[in-house]
Design brief:
The structure holds two protein chains of two kinds.
Chain A lengths: L3 E10 L6 E11 L4 E5 L6 H9 L6 E6 L2 E2 L7 E4 L11 H11 L4 H14 L15 H13 L5 E5 L7 H17 L3 E5 L3 H7 L2 E5 L6 E6 L1 H7 L7 H6 L1 H15 L3
Parallel strand pairs in A: 3-8, 3-9, 6-7, 7-8
Antiparallel strand pairs in A: 1-2, 1-4, 4-5, 9-10
Helix pairs in contact in A: 2-3, 2-4, 6-9
Chain B lengths: L1 H9 L5 H26 L11 H12 L8 H32 L1 H14 L8 H8 L3 H25 L3 H9 L4 H35 L8 H10 L3 H29 L1 H4 L1
Helix pairs in contact in B: 3-11, 4-5, 4-7, 4-9, 4-10, 6-7, 7-9, 9-10, 9-11, 10-11
Classes of the chains: A alpha/beta, B mainly alpha.
The complex binds adenosine-5'-triphosphate (ATP) and magnesium ion.
């Protein structure tokens, strides 16, 4: 289970003369196990949307609920993968991944196989005892994803998780995320600056307008992906060369361009 | 100069640690030689103003062997270490706790900070009369003064460390559902540890600085007493010896604290 529902959400920052309307009338339903990407111009409020689902920030009007429950605080049912990884530098890879499970008071014997599974899933087995600073950026982000996945969260929230990575690592991580999403489907809310990334990863792409941010359109990707059998292509560049992919990408791109 | 630069280049493959030791030994040796040359060799500085190495060595042996100011070196050192260690440990336990509380909880900070700001400008030594009135001439009064001096840097650095914690780390901990006590012990403290240790080092220094002054009043033993008596006896070599002892002890304790720090922050160099 894990559906997200934005119901007439506004978000205003500051007060008096410094008031800033960041989001206006956001309505969006992310279905259970659906992967939705949000794209939009810088400063349009994408991060704010995600932070409200995470529970770090409260809406100024309207409600956000997960599985019908209105969000009031952060919690492990909504795992966040941060752009800057946000790993605990004084904990090993294993310690980082284990933290959320320990917080659930899960006994060690029950934790161990889950942690091993997460390490294996993200190809981190040989680095379990390393500290984050000993890992490359791509590996650190894999730890962050493992740390989120192992919680078995209702929803996964990712704010430009690959933004800090170099182009090559980024591609590897995108392929990995697709593999993960097929293997182990989750409700994902994913923010990105890259239209290609959004089209490649998501079931649907939500396009936001300039500030105050609104959802100006939603593009269905999944239907096309299934019809055109993108998943038959092993590599990301093969998918991206397909006509159906290029078509979707340029449509979204044009819609975004109007906002710049 | 040229020759020195060349040998210096030659040290390029030395490990940084060895290199630092080498520099330290060189500097100290140079100072020792300069001391010897300026006093014994050339007499540029008369022994009445500043004792020469031989006189200092004699005073040192007197302090160690027969003793001075009523006790031998071991007794004096034991007494001073008792005060410094007692004061430092008490002050740092209290200081780190208060600092954590202030950095963690806004209300606690709002409550404590005004008192703290008012008390801070008062020199720790100004507490000596009150300490003696309250606790008499014994060790307790001296430890109190040391605690007051050593407390401040621990509080300031700890609360700064807590307040400057990376906010995304805090959010990560909240997202993972970290309970309060674990947040304190596994997130807040480790994140603040570098700042906490900076505070502890400054606290240790403050403890030593205050010790000598605290021991000027009604002490029966201690390095401070040695200094005081040596001044009354107009015995510069003994004064220098006692200062030397303070320097070495302070240095050793800082070294020890450094070891504790590198153990506690082992993940940084792992
Ligand atoms: N805590 C805050 N206080 C005041 N204003 C804020 C706060 N957080 C965000 N804002 C403002 O709200 C607007 C939306 O910010 P947000 O970070 O959500 O944008 P974004 O779409 O994620 O941008 P980017 O693509 O650059 O990451 C911005 O104008 C930002 O300055
Ligand atoms: Mg953002």
């Amino acid at each position: 289970m894990g559906s997200i529902c934005f119901d007439k959400v506004d978000k205003v920052f500051g007060a008096g003369s410094g008031v800033l309307k960041a989001l206006e009338d956001i309505n969006l339903i992310v279905a259970d196990k659906e992967f939705v990407a949000i794209v939009g111009p810088s400063g349009c409020g994408k991060t704010t949307c995600l932070r409200m689902v995470a529970g770090f920030e409260a809406p100024s009007a309207g409600t956000i609920s997960v599985d019908g429950k209105v969000i009031i605080a952060p919690g492990p049912d909504r795992a966040v993968v941060f752009q800057q990884f946000a790993l605990f530098p004084w904990k090993t890879v294993r310690g980082n991944i284990e933290m959320g499970l320990r917080n659930k008071n899960m006994p060690r014997a029950q934790r161990a196989p889950l942690v091993e599974g997460a390490l294996k899933l993200m190809n981190l087995e040989s680095h379990a005892e390393a500290f984050p600073h000993q890992l490359s950026g791509g590996m650190q982000q894999r730890v962050a994803i493992a740390r989120a996945y192992v919680l078995d969260p209702a929803v996964l929230l990712m704010d430009e998780p690959f933004g800090a990575l170099d182009a090559q690592t980024r591609v590897v991580m995108q392929e990995e995320l697709v593999r993960l999403a097929r293997l182990n489907p989750r409700t994902v809310l994913f923010i990105t600056h890259s239209v290609e990334e959004a089209v490649y990863l998501a079931d649907r792409v939500a396009i936001m307008s300039r500030r105050p941010g609104r959802i100006k359109g939603i593009v269905d990707i999944k239907a096309v992906r299934l019809a055109e059998q993108w998943d038959k292509s092993e590599r990301i560049e093969d998918v991206m060369e397909r006509e159906s992919f290029v078509h979707l990408r340029s449509n979204i791109w044009k819609s975004l361009r109007e906002e710049k | 100069m040229q020759a020195f630069a060349e040998t210096w280049e030659g040290q390029g493959d030395m490990r940084p640690r060895m290199r630092r030791t080498f520099v330290a030994v060189t500097t100290l040796s140079a100072l020792g030689v300069a001391w010897f040359v300026l006093t014994t060799e050339t007499g540029l500085i008369s022994s009445g103003r500043f004792p020469d190495p031989a006189a200092t060595w004699a005073a040192m042996r007197q302090l160690a062997g027969p003793g001075y100011a009523g006790s031998t070196l071991v007794v004096h050192v034991a007494q001073s270490l008792k005060l410094v260690l007692g004061g430092f440990l008490f002050a740092s336990a209290l200081g780190v706790s208060v600092g954590l509380l202030m950095g963690w909880n806004r209300k606690a900070e709002a409550l404590i900070n005004p008192v703290f700001l008012l008390l801070r400008p008062i020199p720790p030594l100004a507490w000596i009369p009150l300490a003696i009135l309250w606790l008499g001439l014994g060790d307790a009064a001296k430890i109190m003064v040391i605690v007051i001096a050593a407390f401040v840097p621990s509080v300031i650095n700890t609360s700064t460390g807590v307040r400057t914690i990376d906010p995304t780390i805090v959010e990560a901990a909240r997202m993972l559902g970290t309970p309060h006590w674990r947040y304190m012990s596994e997130v807040l403290v480790p994140a603040s540890l570098p700042a906490i240790f900076t505070g502890l080092r400054l606290s240790l220094q403050a403890a030593w600085t205050t010790l000598v002054a605290a021991e000027l009043v009604g002490a029966l033993a201690g390095i401070g007493l040695v200094l005081n008596v040596a001044q009354q006896d107009i015995y510069p070599a003994m004064i220098l010896s006692a200062m030397f002892v303070v320097g070495v002890l302070g240095w050793l304790m800082t070294l020890l604290l450094g070891l504790v720090e590198s153990y506690a922050l082992g993940w940084r160099t792992a």
